[in-house]
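Thread title: Can someone regenerate the structure for this chain?

I was given the following input by a collaborator and told the matching structure tokens would be attached. They weren't. Posting the sequence so someone can regenerate them.
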Amino acid sequence: MNMSNRISYPIVLALLAVYFPWGGTYLAMKFAVETLPPFLLAGIRFLIAGALMYLWEASRGTKNPEKIHWRNATIIGGLMLLGGNSLVVYAEQMVSSGIAAIIIATVPLWMTLFAWLWQGGTKPNSYVVFGLLLGFLGQILLVSNSFQSISYNPSQTSGYLILTFASLFWAVGSLYSRKAQLPNSAIMSIAIQNLMGGLLCLIVGISLGELSQLHIEHVSTRSILSLAYLIFFGSIIGFSAYIWVLKKAEPTIVSTYAYVNPVVAVFLGWIFANEQLNSTDAIAAFIILVSVLLITRNSTPKKIDTPLKKGSNTCSLSGLDGEGI
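Best answer:
Regenerated them for you:
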């Protein structure tokens, strides 16, 4: 595939639809959680997005998922959406949206490491190993910097640690989804993952007593609009564009979202939420993004099958949504 084919105008537009909607989800989560409890917020988002995608696929005559598909979707939704995304929402009560995006950008680091150690993947080459070490150095720098000011903002350190666990959950869920048996339709696969993940988020939110924290009359317009953004631009448009470009471009091109999204998130947080990075945070962010660049550019990509084969799900790769995440 030559460069002109890889970077055609439709591909550029699709990449922009991934960069900006997903990069904007971190700020949207920050605004939404101002007046909405985090796990209920995540549950509502994923249930609505999943239901809309499911109905769309059903209207097109897509075959209903089988029992094993629902089981695997529950596992993936639990790892990636409950353990990954909803923890990001929770942590954004403590840290800025830009910092959240930067820490979640380490997902490719964890995926590379786990794929090698857990799934018998290709041993990382020297560039990838250097990228892994560099990425972990960046994370250590971020967390150690928060300890220096812990007397002023102790919750910030907790937020960093929660985001690290969110990255781990997302990476494990992504790797599991690669081998899990799921519907042939990528959209249907994502729909049932959203439905089951959303249900789990609601269960956790209710168990934690978030219903008593939800006061409809106090929910701000900004939170409602942010929730709508997360549903339509983050979950539906962002996912659709990602799936399309995944089939049309090389994985190394698609993987650029992993280090473009944090830049978008930091910029939007600075413009709309007056978020600031201190010099140490900025250095750590730069180190992490360079590490992700090294890993994504020097890893050996696996062939992506189109259409999706039964028993696989190549659309559930690292950092989806982090959904924007």
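The chain has one domain: 3-298.
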